[in-house]
Amino acid sequence: MPPRTLIAGNWKMNLTLPESRHLAQEVLKVAAGAGPEVMIAPPFTALTVVAEVLAGSEVSLGAQNCCWASQGAFTGEISPLMLRELGCAMVILGHSERRHVFGEDNAMINRRLKGALAAGLRPVLCVGETLEERQAGRANPVLKSQLEEGLDAIPIGAGLIVAYEPVWAIGTGQTATPGQAQEAHAFIRETLAGMSQKIVASEIRILYGGSVNEGNVEALLAQADINGALVGGAALKIESFARIIRHHV
Ligand code: PEP
After folding, report:
1. Whole-model pTM?
2. Does 148 participate in catalysis according to the annotation?
3. Is the Cβ–Cβ distance between 190 and 155 less than 8 Å?
4. pLDDT tens digit string along 96-120?
5. Pick from 138, 142, 110: which is nearest to 125 by CA?
6. Residue in 109, 90, 249, 95 with CA at minimum distance from that of residue 165
7. How far apart are CA 27 and CA 42, in angstroms?
8. Nearest residue CA, atom 8 of ligand 1?
9. CB 89 within 8 A of CB 61
10. d(CA 64, CA 103)
């Protein structure tokens, strides 16, 4: 059986506290009995208000990053234990904006992953090539090293979530075609199988992210190796996010 579809909303650095509370309340209404698992990842500052709204529901709370250490001299960072204390179940790690705007490399992402797992958070590891890398025919080697170095010395289990987010498709309105996405997802699954076991890799959810909207989600989710979506811009508009949640296969 394919793993349960996961629709995850990455709010990035958006929304005031009242807006966050309102959007979370709307997501809760839409997600009830919808079929896919739903996760929303507000900015750190809104985690408390969103946690209050989601308490006792099936919608998971996620964070957008976390430190590897549980406490200490790490100015500006948030520890995985702090996120657990706030009610987070998941954490997005290695998002392309972290890699390309803030310079996080695979080694740092690997440390963050270990910290998240040690605290009991389910990590969503983002991988993806730039346009330049794709055009140079280097998409697969880039994905392979992001997976191998990002997951170095980490036992790979079915609880791991990977998001394929081609950098050229994030926030650009230029989605990968279902065929392009499926090809990359199949490669990711094959790479994970090589790092663990085929059966384990078949249970890992691989989300697609990059300009997902209500118009393209169905065709993307119809692909064999696409087990959900990581949604940025469209997760901020409840009408769009609702259609994405409901247009599952
Ligand atoms: C993202 O933030 O992970 C993302 C895919 O953004 P968008 O949907 O806006 O491209």
Report:
1. 0.97
2. no
3. no
4. 999 999 999 999 999 999 999 999 9
5. 110
6. 95
7. 12
8. 232
9. yes
10. 15
